[in-house]
Amino acid sequence: MIKEKLLLVKLDPSLNHIAPYTEHQVRETLVWLETSKDFIRGVQFFYPDWKEEDIISKLRACKTCADFQVQFIEMIIKNSVKNTMDSLEISGLDTFDSSNNLYISNHRDIFLDSALFQNHLYDIGQPFTEISLGDNLMVNKTMKGVAKMNNMFTVFRSGSKSELLKNTYDLSRYLRFSIIEKKVSSWIAQNNGRTKDGNDLTAPGLIKMLLLSGDDDIKGSLEELNIVVSTISYEYEPCAFEKAYELSMIDKEGIYKKKHFENLNSIINGINEYKGKVKLVFEKLDVNNIYFTNNRNKDVLEIAKEINNIVYRNYQLWKTNYMAHDLLYTDNKYKSFYSWDEMDKFKTYLTRASNKDVYYRLLKIYVNPLLNKDN
Q1: Deepest in the core among 82, 177, 239, 357, taking most CB within 10 A?
Q2: Bridge partners of 283?
Q3: pTM score over 0.70
Q4: 13-316 CATH choice from 2.60.40, 3.30.365, 3.30.420, 3.40.1130
């Protein structure tokens, strides 16, 4: 059984709808998953040699969310690293205390961004973090159960205006409680959903949410959250064609309506698609680098700007970024960064674009990190 931090402080019951599962809910869900044919089929998709009785036996061996993650998730991630990545480099975790931080990440893949981090924590003997997940991804009881068994807390993205305001405040309270009182680390994205255009921008709304549960001392309220900026860089962007197509449709029709299980397919594709080289860098946010005026709106923008600066600084540029630039602008500015054979390979990859608009948006996904880093 994998050890988890024990909850020594009591959670406000009004936050139960956001928090990960309690011990009682974990036990209930483990028993219920034994009866879920969707869960059994989903596990067998990734582990085709496992029989139903094997899966039930593994469920019964679990006592905690950490046990579940190790039994059912860790090998999926290790196989993804082995089969779809040429290399994976992770750096920066040794430069700060990793006991109770709020990890704010640029977000390129629904599942892998946080999962690669959890996999590394497991490998170095550190506790898993809690992880944010939008309620839009909990499409049925099985998906919700699996998500919560991965120690996820819920970010509500639907509801009336008053409900959204309340849930935003509750999320802020929960995160501050987790970091300061429960002393457990949490992972959250810098924006609402994945970056689809290659621009890693921190949403001012995220910063406003985090500060809602603090006091009038904005700097102090921010500092006690122990923010660490997590920057992931993929040589080949997960689900890049789907992202470019979605943006193209939104621009053309004003809306893009996802199919019922589209996000689930994106999770699977993100795990299975070739990603080339991958780098994950962590850097503690130094609040002394931010100029605070105690004007909340101005300070929010300055905080977001500093997080962006860290992401841009730590983003690893790959040959794909340089090749995309030269194709988009039809020049040879970065020709020293790649070979013609590598360019031919990249051009072949780009032929999967369904039309010219998708093609150009695809190039921009790779070019924008280069432009951001240069600026």
Answers
A1: 239
A2: 229
A3: yes
A4: 3.40.1130
